[in-house]
Amino acid sequence: MKLPWLSPVLEQPGPLVSVHLDTTRTDPQAAGELEARWAQMRSRLAADGAPDDILSRIEESVLSPSPLGGRHGRPIFASDSEILVDRVLPAPPRQESAHRGEFPHLLPLLQLIPFAVSQLLIVVDRAGADLHLRAPENPSIAHGPNGLGSDATVEGGHDVLHKASVGGGPQHGWRADNFEARVEDSWERNADAVASAVEKVLREKRVDMVMLSGDVRAMGLLREALGRETRDRLIDVPSGARGVSLERGPFREEIDRTTDEFITARQHELAARFRESQARDGASVGGALEVEQALARGQVEELVFVSGHEPDGIEELLRSALATDASVSALDAETDGVPEGVGALLRWKDDSTPSNSIGSMSGDARRE
Length: 368
What we know:
The protein is an alpha+beta fold. It folds into 3 domains: 4-115, Translation, Eukaryotic Peptide Chain Release Factor Subunit 1, Chain A (2-Layer Sandwich); 119-247, Nucleotidyltransferase, domain 5, CATH 3.30.420; 266-367, CATH 3.30.1330.30. Helix content is 38%, strand content 18%. Helix 2 (30-47) runs antiparallel to helix 3 (52-63) and helix 5 (172-204) crosses helix 6. The chain starts with 6 loop residues before the first helix and ends in a 22-residue tail after the last strand.
């Protein structure tokens, strides 16, 4: 995943404050527990020299209720004078931490990257659609614009929407057929308007998942109206309806289940792609030293690491990857076949590129 929003942190000279906190509030005691954990962090940061003013601003942020329900975490990076990055992510950190030093502490955030999935949810009926954008910088799905402004609601404008019997006279059959044709034409034209709005959002926003819910007939018409590439990305989510809260239990459960399945599949695909590249001696390297050398030469397209099995020096590798505009992806702790827990898919390779054959490596069980 590309992380351009981390640029202010990477470009800011130290000292820097890095806070990674579980801000979940799923029961009445959670708020008090959060305050107590933050108080301990604040004391440690103050002892390390962090100014009281910036700590107060961080405190205001971490103790404010998040728009995201369920379990979530908050990474914050700050200089001594301003907050540089403040995000809410749909998973708590593997381990909470507070750090002040010359460089930011990036690993707890980057371990959560698999869960930072940007989504476009389309809820359709035969008159139009509501579009809901969910992204790491805007993690709530709620009825409203969600950053899309005027593109959040699409009304097709063709309002002959309901079929009904048309009485009167011997030409009843012809009149009914004609009216039904007008209704279906309105549905199709409205679907075309929704498709145009969806394609516009996908051109302008980076979206990982495209989810579709609502009226079954309208869903089918929208599929037909969308381009093939977008149509192939659609993931159906049952139980949605326009004008009904998207946070209600059954629909939220469907969204969460669909998202979990998407994340798992994407993790498996990335791990398989790395292993296949290693096995056929393709454009990848594995192991800390090999990755470090590839980063120094600007060869890395995507750095991958296994959460919980990172090598010593992972922070330096992560900073180098981001500084050279490489993507960074975390893999599940159970992922096998990544030597020393870190590897890289390369932009290019030549004869001086370190060997990336798993069979040629030794010394670490995870190399095998």
